[in-house]
C-alpha cells in the first residue's frame, strides 16, 4: 500500500497569548484518514494547537502565531484563505456537547441552511446521512422534530458530531469529546471515531491515555508548549524515546 498523504502540517509554529509563549517551534505532519491523539499534562498547549487548525484562536485578543499551518499543503493563515471556507473543511467537536436549543433535525442541517441550502429533500437526505454516520439515526429517527436538549449527554455529543459531518469536512478536530460522558457513551464515541477515520482525518485531544491507545493511530505528546514526541501510538506506548514521554505515560506526572 502506498504511503498516505499528509493532510495537516505545522512548520516552525510558535503561538503566543500576549507575552506568553504557548507553543514553541512545533513541527508535525499528520497523515490523512488517520487518527492522531494529542496528549500531555494540563496547560501544555494541546487545545491551543488543535484550535490553530481551524483558526478558532483568531477570536482571542492578543493571540498570534509565527510559522505555518498547512492543510493539503496550503497555508491556512494566508491572506487569501477565507475562514468560513476553511471551517467547512475542518469541523470541530468540543468537550461539552453544545447542541442549539432547536430540534434534532434543525441542529444537523444548521450549517447547510447557513450555506443557503433550502430544499427540503436535500436537507432530509443530508440529515439522515449525517445521523447514520454519527451512529445516532436509529435512536432519533422517530423524533427528529423533538428538542435536541432532551437527548442524553452522549446522544447530544453524537448529534454535535452529526452536525459537524453534515457540512462534509475532510478533517474533524475533537477537543476531549468524551470527557463529559459516562463510560457507555464514551465507548460509543470511541467506536464512532474508529469508523469515521475511513473517511476523515481526525485529531483528538484527550487526557485519557487508554483512550488514546484505543482510538488513535498516532500520538503526539506535548509538554510545556513543546511537542516532545510524535510516533505511531503503539510505538509511543511501548517504547517512548524521550524520558518525559515515558514519565507521563507511566503516570509519574500530569
Ligand atoms: N485565552 C487565553 N488567554 C491566555 N492564555 C491562555 C488562553 N488559553 C490558554 N492559555 C494558556 O496557554 C497554555 C496552554 O493552554 P491550553 O488550553 O492549550 O492547554 P491544554 O494542554 O489544552 O490544557 P488542558 O489539558 O488543561 O485543556 C496554558 O498555560 C493556558 O493558561
Automatic annotation (TrEMBL):
Q: What is its main location?
A: membrane
Its record classes its membrane topology as: Peripheral membrane protein
A GO molecular-function term, please?
ATP binding
- Gene3D superfamilies membership: P-loop containing nucleotide triphosphate hydrolases
SMART domains recorded for this chain? AAA
Alphabetical UniProt keywords: ATP-binding, Cell membrane, Membrane, Nucleotide-binding, Phosphate transport, Translocase, Transport
Which residues belong to any copy of the ABC transporter domain? 8-249
The reply to whether ATP-binding figures as a keyword in the UniProt entry is yes
**A GO CC term?**
plasma membrane
Q: What are the BP-aspect GO terms?
A: phosphate ion transmembrane transport
Among Pfam families, the record links this protein to:
ABC_tran (PF00005)
Protein's cellular compartments = Cell inner membrane
Q: What does this protein do?
A: Part of the ABC transporter complex PstSACB involved in phosphate import. Responsible for energy coupling to the transport system.
| Entries under NCBIfam families matching the protein | 3a0107s01c2 (TIGR00972)
Instruction: Report the protein name in the record.
Output: Phosphate ABC transporter ATP-binding protein
- Species for this entry: Pontibacter mangrovi
Amino acid at each position: 500500500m502506498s504511503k498516505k498523504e499528509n493532510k495537516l502540517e505545522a512548520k516552525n509554529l510558535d503561538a503566543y497569548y500576549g507575552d506568553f509563549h504557548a507553543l514553541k517551534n512545533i513541527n508535525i505532519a499528520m497523515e490523512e484518514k488517520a487518527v492522531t491523539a494529542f496528549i500531555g499534562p494540563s496547560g501544555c498547549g494541546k487545545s491551543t494547537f488543535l484550535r490553530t487548525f481551524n483558526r478558532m484562536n483568531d477570536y482571542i485578543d492578543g493571540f498570534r502565531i509565527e510559522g505555518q499551518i498547512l492543510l493539503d499543503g496550503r497555508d491556512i493563515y494566508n491572506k487569501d484563505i477565507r475562514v468560513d471556507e476553511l471551517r467547512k473543511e475542518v469541523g470541530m467537536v468540543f468537550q461539552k456537547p453544545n447542541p442549539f436549543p432547536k430540534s434534532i433535525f434543525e441542529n444537523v442541517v444548521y450549517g447547510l441552511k447557513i450555506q443557503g441550502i433550502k430544499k427540503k429533500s436535500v436537507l432530509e437526505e443530508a440529515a439522515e446521512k449525517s445521523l447514520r454516520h454519527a451512529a445516532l439515526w436509529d435512536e432519533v429517527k422517530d423524533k427528529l422534530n423533538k428538542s435536541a436538549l432532551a437527548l442524553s449527554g452522549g446522544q447530544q455529543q453524537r448529534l454535535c458530531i452529526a452536525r459537524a459531518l453534515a457540512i462534509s469536512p475532510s478533517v474533524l478536530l475533537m477537543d476531549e469529546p468524551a470527557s463529559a460522558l459516562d463510560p457507555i457513551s464514551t465507548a460509543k464515541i470511541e467506536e464512532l471515531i474508529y469508523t469515521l477515520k475511513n473517511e476523515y482525518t481526525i485529531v483528538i485531544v484527550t487526557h485519557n491515555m487508554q483512550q488514546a491507545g484505543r482510538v488513535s493511530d498516532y500520538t503526539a505528546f506535548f509538554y510545556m508548549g513543546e511537542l516532545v514526541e510524535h510516533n505511531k501510538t503503539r510505538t509511543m506506548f511501548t517504547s517512548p524515546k524521550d524520558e518525559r514521554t515515558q514519565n507521563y505515560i507511566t503516570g509519574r506526572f500530569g
